[in-house]
């Protein structure tokens, strides 16, 4: 049975409908964010980075980053979008940020070594944040993501 190693809550400033997770060592990312960014599918995986299209243009989203030792059960609850992908992270850490606003100052820690991770992403609040964003910038966290990482064996 899979065991949860760590869980971190991270707010991220979404802008231009986008957010990203990218290897903290950006010298290992062939095309660094936001280069090549365009709103599109919910999740687009590129070498060393994950691009996520949000439901709202400008707002603060809530991210839960879970690190597991093996594939965990899917997060409970109802989700508007889900996706499964993989990412190689050379530094063991990820930068998280929006499109124009750039990354948060501190990385998200996954491990002490390079690893290829399986990643499950689930999101809810997309429809509601899209509606609120039409009337202005939502003040509360409406859109929420769960990122589940586990090492590929």
- When the domains are counted, the total is 1
Structural class, from secondary structure content?
Answer: mainly beta
Main-sheet strand order equals 1-5-10-9-6
Indicate the low-confidence ranges by residue numbers: none
| Fraction in beta strands | over 45%
Give a quick rundown of the structure.
This protein is mainly β.
Model description:
The relative contact order is 0.28. The chain has 1 helix and 10 strands. It has a single domain, classed as Sandwich (Substrate Binding Domain Of DNAk, Chain A, domain 1), CATH 2.60.34. A 5-stranded mixed beta sheet has the order 1-5-10-9-6, covered by helices on one side. It is mostly beta strands.
Question: What are the key terms here?
Answer:
153 residues; mainly beta; Substrate Binding Domain Of DNAk, Chain A, domain 1; five-stranded antiparallel beta sheet; 1 helix; globular
């Amino acid at each position: 049975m899979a065991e949860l190693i760590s869980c971190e809550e991270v707010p991220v400033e979404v802008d231009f409908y986008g957010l990203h997770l990218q290897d903290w060592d950006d010298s290992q990312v062939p095309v660094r964010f936001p280069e090549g960014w365009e709103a599109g599918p919910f999740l687009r995986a590129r070498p060393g980075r994950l691009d996520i299209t949000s439901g709202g243009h400008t707002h603060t989203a809530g991210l839960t980053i879970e690190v597991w030792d093996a594939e965990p059960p899917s997060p409970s609850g109802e989700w508007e979008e889900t996706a499964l992908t993989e990412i190689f992270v050379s530094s063991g850490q990820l930068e998280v940020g929006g499109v124009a606003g750039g990354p948060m100052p501190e990385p998200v820690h996954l491990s002490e070594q390079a690893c290829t991770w399986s990643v499950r992403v689930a999101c809810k609040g997309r429809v509601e944040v899209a509606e609120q964003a039409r009337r202005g910038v939502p003040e509360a966290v409406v859109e929420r993501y769960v990122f589940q990482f586990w090492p590929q064996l």
